Structure formats: structure tokens, C-alpha cells
């Protein structure tokens, strides 16, 4: 979190206060600044840093900061606002921070630990698939709302556990590729990371058991197991080292398990509670939207699985991880991912034209996917393959398309 702003009036008052205390104590041998002055000096230093002034911001004749090495410009820059954020965290630690500032810093670090773009993807996908399970307006009621809330809480907790597990085993790699993550930056210790991973996994599984929903429990367990297979550095595991296995893990979770598991979790909640009759078992169900969504997300998930390694090629090469981006090169993988995404949008337009039976569903399916496909083509032309930041920005754009698809999925009937 950014440091709180300080007004000029408050600064002037602080300076006058410092002068007064200095005059009052002048002449005493061995005098040292009181704690109040030390805190104010730290405050002045933080303000100078933010304004680019003072010792930390002074520039020599060549435009370098004082104390900056000649090779400093060769270091790989952190993405986005990561570098100033980490500097602010260190500055707060050096100057002393209030309890409120410390709490904000911890919350901010935890949010980064959860990988917000994956949390948003999970929340949108679970909600969308749950809406897809509705057969008609009569299904909207207490049982539906309760099943969705249970699924969301359990899925988000499991998401934190899975992405956290990957960070625990990828600390050295993330110091190169993602130094803004709390384990890589040192804001969280390894023990803290492991505690969060274990706690969220147990919490998610406890919700699954308490719900009594077999589809939900199977979905949570399968997702956790694949997350362990993908990240854990154990014998026969850490499948992320192998491009095909890595893609299969992501594809299985995002394209198949999420669709089938949460759809049937909600559908079972609706069919097991019909009026005053409670059935003793559920039947696996399907629909046009579910079949289409699964097929579409297969293509999309493969593209995401391949593209996510493009911005991280430097760290992966140093760690000896042979991703397709490392083996085949950025250009080939970039073009292959774009081809998969365009194939997904072309198939969506075809489904809208020939498979949907309702006019409004046909119009939304064809129109929206045509617009998104054109947006993809236009955005891909602006990507600089030599820039990790440009590739990462496009990767985040793909996630936005991923979110948009789940918003459209309930309209495919």
C-alpha cells in the first residue's frame, strides 16, 4: 500500500518542533536525538524518497542515483509497480511503522499471495457455471443461493492453497520472474506460506465434507491433487517441468473439473430438494451450455497454460525448467496460443449459428464472440515479443477474455 501523504503544513510544524528541541538541549554532552526526532527524521526521509529528492533521489551528472552502480541499468526491471512497492515496504521497516500501516502491509502482501487474477477467474467461473445449472426461473431460491455460496467459499479457499503451494516451491524462480510476490520479496516467511496453504486447504475440504455434496467434494479433492502434482518438488511430481503434463493439469482443472463439478453440485442441490421431497442420490446432468463451455475452455486453458510461461522465460531458463517457451521460442508459442484462441472463438460463432434454439441466445453468442475475437486480433498486433512486460500485459488481457467468456456462458441455451 502506498505511504500516506503528508501535508506541507505538518512538515513545517515538524521542522519547527525539531529546532526547538535542539535549542533546548544544546550544550549537553553526549546528547542523542529523542525517539520523536528519530521518527520525524524517518518521516522526512520517506517524503524525500517519494519526491525524488534527498540522498536517495540525488542524481549525478550522468543521470544515475547516488551510489548506483554502472551496471544497475542492466538489471531486469520488476513488472508494473512491483519495484516501488517493495522499496516502500523496506522504507517503512527502516523508518518505523504504525500498527495500522503494518496491518495494511500484511493485508496487501496476502492479497498478492492469493494471485488476484486467479481468484477473480475462480469466482466468475463458479458463479457462471452455477447459473448455467438453472433449468428455469423456478429453480432460483434458497437451495440455489446456498449451494452457490458454499461452492464459492470452498473454491476460493482451495484456489489460495493451490497458488500458494506453487509459490512455496518456486521462491528462487519467483525472485527472478515475480519478485513482488510476498515469499520472493521476504515479506512472508516460508513457514507463513506453508501455514496459509495448509490452513486454506483444510478449510476448503471441511466445507466440502459439511456440505454433503459429492460433486463438490470430488471437485475440491481433484483440484488439490492436481495442484500438488503440478508444483510439489517431490519424486515423480512437479509436473510443471514438463510442458505436456503442465498443460494437462491446468486444462483438467479449468476446463473439465470446474465445469462438470460445480454444475452438478448446483444441479444436485436443486434436484435433491424438490418441495418437501428429498431424494437420496443425484444424477449427473448436462446441457448445451455445459458441453460448449467445456470444449471452449479446453482450447482456452491450453492457450493459458502455454502462454503463462512466455513472460517467465528468463527465470525458467536459469532454473532449468524446459517449458515450451524455452524449447521452441517465444514467437512459435505466441502464434500457437493465438491460433488456439481464435479457433475457440470461431467454434463459438458456429455454435451460436447452428446449435442455439433461442433468438436472443443466438444473437448474444454470435455477436459477443465476434467482437471478442476481433479484440484479440487487434491486441495481439501490439505485443512486443522481446519485452517480458509486454507479454505479461497480453497474458493479463487473455485472462480478461477468460472472464468475459464465463459472463457469456449462461446465455448459451
Could you explain how this protein is built, in words?
Helices cover 71% and strands 1% of the residues. The two termini are 44 Å apart. The chain folds into two domains: 113-284, UbiA prenyltransferase (Tetracycline Repressor, domain 2); 287-413, Four Helix Bundle (Hemerythrin (Met), subunit A), CATH 1.20.120. The longest helix is centred in the middle third of the chain and has 30 residues, at 243-272. The chain has helices at 8-25, 35-51, 54-57, 82-95, 99-113, 116-132, 142-169, 171-177, 182-185, 190-211, 214-231, 243-272, 288-307, 313-319, 324-328, 330-354, 359-380, 388-408, and strands at residues 273-274, 277-278. By secondary structure, it is mainly alpha-helical. The chain has a two-stranded antiparallel ribbon. Belongs to the UbiA prenyltransferase family. Residues 1-85 are annotated as: Disordered. Residues 11-30 have a biased composition (Low complexity).
Mean pLDDT reading: 78
CATH class of the largest domain: Mainly Alpha
Number of helices: 18
Given the helix and strand composition, which structural class is it?
Answer: mainly alpha
CATH superfamily of the largest domain: UbiA prenyltransferase
Strand order, sheet with most strands: 1-2
Radius of gyration: 26 Å
Unreliable spans: 1-44, 50-81, 273-283
What CATH calls the topology of the largest domain is: Tetracycline Repressor, domain 2
N-to-C span = 44 Å
| Total number of domains | 2
Q: Mind describing the biggest β-sheet?
A: 2 strands, antiparallel
- Global shape: globular
What CATH architecture label of the largest domain applies? Orthogonal Bundle
Beta-strand content: under 5%
Count of extended strands: 2
The ordered string of helix (H) and strand (E) elements is HHHHHHHHHHHHEEHHHHHH
Keywords: Membrane, Transferase, Transmembrane, Transmembrane helix
Biased composition (Basic and acidic residues): 34-45, 55-65
Transmembrane segments: 140-162, 201-230, 242-264, 284-307, 332-353, 359-378, 390-412
Region (Disordered): 1-85
